[in-house]
Amino acid sequence: MARSIIAGLILLVWLGCRPEGESVNRLKTGMWRAVIEVQDQKLPFNFELVHDQKGGYDIYLINAEERLLLDEVAVTEDSINMVLHIFDANIKAKIEGDSLQGVFIKNYAADYRVPFTAVYGREYRFPERKSEVETADFTGKYEVTFLHEGDTTKAIGIFNQSGKKVTGTFLTPTGDYRFLDGNATGNVLQLSTFDGNYAYLFRASLQEDGKLEGEFFSGKTWRETWVAEKNENATLPDAESLTYLKEGYDKISFAFPDVDGKMVSLEDDAYKDKVVILQLLGTWCPNCMDETKFLSPWYTENKQRGVEIVGLAYERKADFDYARARVRKMVEKMDVPYNILIAGTDDKEKASETLPMLNGVLAFPTTIFIGKDGKVKKIHTGFNGPGTGIYFEQFKENFNQTVNDLLKENFTAER
User: Which of 120, 152, 185 corresponds to the end of one domain?
Assistant: First the structure.
């Protein structure tokens, strides 16, 4: 009995001496397999839990070759709260031994809470299906059509397969689906991704005629069917023809506040006689995050050449304080060195009203190139990010060539 009392006292002393915030239910570092439940579907992803330099935790979301750092991870007693990168979203869960049970929450959306679970030590993404047929090879380039209630969207699918592991993405006229990760079993293809804000699940079956037929689930409500056929010559509409200036316009004009409330215009001295790149973005937008990762170091290396970048942020809420808080977080997390203004909300119809000289705001991001004479030279709709491989390399090459050409231009006209 005395030994039991002493052991109990030692435990109480140890609990009382624990550093503030340290969990009684210690989390194990290493690989975890997580599942988000949407539309009666189990959408899997993987993450790695590591110790940070302060004795706490960091998490890396893993999709194919991408490792997206979450460095705001709070563990208190039997709970964990993950702030999901720059996005206004969290995962909150209870720690139950080698598993987590909780919810994925989008804070900006009304009643957006979906079940989340995770299990330690499981490195696979999709469990292998039993199949009586040999696993097909889905590697290749596909001409894809997404169908939703009579509406269709043309896309390009790019898949790479090694054994049963498959990675790839879809390119659409307004952006790509980033890093997809999954597997193939028999004639069934499964892919998913979770970037902290968007959760995508793709399934498809290989048909006897060589075509793919499948389903696409996005978040709580969006579902599409899709069909695909291998086609190495598949193309999309020219990204530089979709958004354009209306007849009678040759310039962009606006006045929007920065995060401190100061009004900024292209007529300001900071932008006169310079090549200016306008980035239409939202901090909620993973494709915009990808473009910002490219633009930020690019600007640091090239600003001395006479080029400026201005971001126009269209956020989830029509509240200035909310919007600037999201922009400030993005700037801090991603070390953005150029000015980002608060331009409006992400509703494309309302966003279009803020730039009435355009035929419309069709996609986030959209990139507008302005010459030293203040005139619009090119508008690129959407963005092919690092998950698209060669298409990302082509974008960067075209981007640099455009800027180089504009910097060489001379003009004498008054602005």
Answer: 120
Confidence of residue 132 (pLDDT cuts 50, 70, 90): confident
**Judgement on whether residues 159 and 93 belong to the same structural domain of the protein:** no
Residue with tokens 């979301």: 61
CA gyration radius for the chain?
24
Looking at this protein, which amino acid is placed at residue 352? S
Closest CA to 324 of 278, 258, 265: 258
Looking at the predicted structure, is the pLDDT value of residue 21 above 80? no
Residue 303 has phi, psi (to 5 degrees) of -60, -30
Q: What is the predicted pLDDT for the residue at 151?
A: 86
The answer to whether residue 16 sits within a structural domain is: no
Lowest mean pLDDT among 16-25, 31-40, 159-168, 297-306: 16-25
The verdict on residue 89 lying in a domain is yes
Q: Which long-range contacts (CB under 8 A, 24 or more apart) does 90-93 make?
A: 91/116, 93/118
* Digit-coded pLDDT (tens) for 365-410: 999 999 999 999 999 999 999 999 999 999 999 999 999 999 998 7
DSSP bridge pairs for 106: 89
Please tell me the pTM assigned to this model.
0.92
What's the domain count of the chain?
Answer: 3
**Number of other CB atoms surrounding residue 301 within 10 Å:** 9
Same domain as 347, residue 219: no
Identify whether 68 is part of a domain: yes
Integer Cα distance of 398 and 392 in angstroms: 10
Q: Are strands 339-345 and 307-315 parallel, antiparallel or unpaired?
A: parallel
What is the domain-level CATH number for residue 97?
2.40.128.120
- CA-to-CA separations, 190 to 81, 152, 230, in angstroms, rounded: 29, 22, 17
Q: How far apart are CA 84 and CA 104, in angstroms?
A: 10
At residue 10 the predicted structure's pLDDT band, cuts being 50, 70 and 90, is very low
Q: Which domain holds residue 316?
A: 255-408
Q: Is residue 133 part of a domain?
A: no
